[in-house]
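SUBJECT: A protein chain and its fold
Encoding: whole-number codes for local backbone shapes
Chain under study, with its fold:
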Amino acid sequence: MTTRLYALGNHANAPGRLARRAYVRPFGLLTVTGFVFLVAVYALHSQDDSSTGGRSASAKANDDTPPGGGSRVVEIVDQGADYRVVRHALGTTRVPASPRRLCALGYLDELLAIDVKPMAASSFNGHFPDYLEDQLDGVIDIPQMYGNWQPNFEAILAAQPDLILTSNSDPQTYRQLSKIAPVVVLTNSGQHCRKRLLDVGLVLGCQHQAEVRAAWYDAKIRAAQEALGDKMGDRKVAFFRIFGKQYYIHGRSRGGLVLYDDLKLNPPTLLAGGARGMMLSPEALLDLDADYIFIAAERSKGTYRSLAQLLDHPAWQRVPAVRSGHVVRLHSFHQWLVAGVLGKALIVDEILAAVAPEALDEVNARAESAAREVGS
């Protein structure tokens, strides 16, 4: 038996500006034929503590979190007509008030979300994030050095930046970068991407633009929750990745943060208790009770074989999502791995396109309305 998957194609118009439509086009049925490459991923960290009474362990731990890390935003400790002094994850840095040659070694999503196009940006294997690539014409490519994931210092020096923004919290890397230009370090972007968006706005003097974009995303999430809640009920959703010989189901990590934290969708029973995710054997699929599956596969020969084996496995055929035809193939999925608000908004669109396509226009209209209200 051949498994047939819904397919979500490449996204030529990722949400880069408030006026642009942020949703994908409706999809059709097709047999799996192609694969996408997997780019480098960053670790995600624990969720904000939302307790209002007493001092929890996570609240105490947050006392030791530096500005620009976890749930703490950066601090502007001084500023003048042509500078501001920023306290961030690895220290305090004087930065230009209006940088003209910004080098983004992280937070590219957040920069584009506030309509800031960097002069240079990190790439992996010669590529920028696929969902942002069409907005980066003319941006200088700063390769990451495989093996130690260090930036190419010579390429950065040649670019002559006047500010470097990075997510790399290694002190030695920070010292080396600081010899080239002022450096601001922001960390823990996963569950705190909204905080990092506000951080980027503060560092660049674009706080209002960041607040507008945050309101846009918040409104989009609220509208999507309503639309999906009506449609999904108690149904369960999973984000499933294949890389090499490995089958991995994400819990509260990567795209799972959007599924379960933002949209409040139900995880499969395997992920009960808030697990970050787990490796699965084909036989373990007998316990996978997901009603919808979003599946992403690395572009490699090994993954080709693994996916083919999975689709033919009897246990896969018994998964509820497979039996009902609710398996969604992601042909472009960098946004499901490392994303700020633009990438997460695109994930929301993909979920809506699969589950409640009739709600796409209304959800995006409400997001844009909220942005206009805050921006006025």
In short: Residues 9-61 have pLDDT under 50 and may be disordered. The two ends are 56 Å apart (CA to CA). DSSP finds twelve helices and 16 strands in the chain.
